[in-house]
Amino acid sequence: MTTRVDPVRARPARERHADAAAVLGALPVPVLLLDAENRFRHVNHAAEQFLGISASSLAQMRLSDLVPTDNPLFMLIEQVRNTEVTIADHDLTLESPRINKRGITVQGSPLPEEPGAVLLVMQDASAARSLDRQLAFRGAARSVSGMAAILAHEVKNPLSGIRGAAQLLEASVGPADRELAELIRDEADRIRDLVDRMEAFGEKPIARSAVNIHRVLEHVRKLAQSGFAAHIRFVENYDPSLPPVWGNRDQLIQIMLNLVKNAAEAVTTPSVKRPEITLSTGFHHGVRVAVPGSTTRVDLPLFVAVRDNGPGIPEDLRPHLFEPFVTSKPTGSGLGLALVAKIVGDHGGLIAVESRPGRTEFRLHLPVVSEKDADQ
Ligand SMILES: Nc1ncnc2c1ncn2[C@@H]1O[C@H](COP(=O)(O)OP(=O)(O)OP(=O)(O)O)[C@@H](O)[C@H]1O
Ligand SMILES: [Mg+2]
Q1: Most-buried pick from 92, 152, 240, 264 (CB within 10 A)?
Q2: 68 C-alpha vs ligand 2 centroid, how far in Å?
Q3: Among 356, 325, 269, which Cα is nearest to 140's?
Q4: Strand, helix or coil for residue 175
């Protein structure tokens, strides 16, 4: 008589555990195993990265060392223990001095062989949402481009007429009226500047070449430090091995200047004792994005980031940050970030934002020169 032996089960339990640990380790999704006392029994590599805490430190901790016990995550875990079924919760905030994560989806499952143990699988939905928003921003920028063309056409001509007439008046009226004529001229200039900025939203194809992003950053830093950011310390954190960006140099300067200007404005407030802006570049594999209007996806391995230690982006502005005319500044036009989103979109890139008091970072993911581009 022959007995059929399951080749997997026939192997010693120790080997099977080693396999399971290897599979968990390789999973790109954060997975954490809690014991009945909410101590971390096992965390995979993705979870270490996600939480920014090493497995050996986590092994010494309980969940309550990471998030306060009134966090809904504790309720989810208790529900899993009581009902012994898998439960998911969306849009959780994991916030404590150690971590700061929002929009997290957590799935909790019981482990039948280990009473009280709960397996947590986490997903950062905010990354997906920020991608969705990106696409919406592109739409917003596009709606401005049509308006910009009309404005440029219909407003600029009559405006120069108004300005000219005011100048003529200035020369011929008495001092009291001269002041009024000057006011007309200045305000006409302000409108013209605004229209000029909006013209940048026009739908023109961009001329691209291989651009050294570090030279762009150097140029912008010098401009900033000799003007609006003279009082601010700059930290540069560049990866010198980066390949060139496939883009338009002038537009890339325009983007970086807008981001650095915003950062400088954010840190110029009495509450920031040591104003600081950090410029960094590097590789970040795994960022892929769909090319609008096609099924192709492109890799965006290169990132450029502008970080400041200012008070953070006002909460109510965040959902609309990249839309035109969104501003919290008395004299701001709210066009800076809308323009940044438009140009980055034209380059086929992406922007991600992370902001909390003391740390705001705008991170651009940009395409590098491919062999196909280099041949052109
Ligand atoms: N680094 C930052 N820190 C805090 N808030 C920021 C930062 N960058 C942008 N913001 C917020 O986003 C808003 C929109 O920025 P955006 O650059 O589009 O317009 P603006 O700076 O107000 O005006 P403009 O750039 O046209 O002069 C700002 O008013 C500010 O509230
Ligand atoms: Mg701005």
Answers
A1: 264
A2: 36
A3: 325
A4: helix
* Residue 85 burial (C-beta neighbours within 10 Å; 0-12, 13-18, 19+): exposed
- For domain 13-126, give the fold: Beta-Lactamase (3.30.450)
Rounded to an integer, what distance in angstroms lies between the CA atom of residue 73 and that of residue 80? 11
Q: Is 69 helix (H, G, I), strand (E, B) or coil?
A: coil
Structure tokens that stand for 51 in this block = 């939480």
Number of H helices, E strands in the chain: 10, 14
Structure tokens at 78: 């208790």
pLDDT digits (tens, 9 = 90+) for 70-104: 999 999 999 999 988 888 887 788 888 888 888 88
Instruction: Note the CATH architecture for domain 209-375.
Output: 2-Layer Sandwich (3.30)
pLDDT in tens, 288-317: 655 555 555 566 778 999 999 999 999 999
Nearest CA to ligand 1 atom 11: 313
Where in the chain are the domains? 13-126, 129-199, 209-375
Q: What is the DSSP letter of 77?
A: H
28: exposed, middle or buried (Cβ count in 10 Å: 0-12, 13-18, 19+): exposed
Q: Hey, which of 308, 337, 363 would you mutate to test ligand 1's pocket, going by the most ligand atoms within 8 Å of its Cβ? A: 337
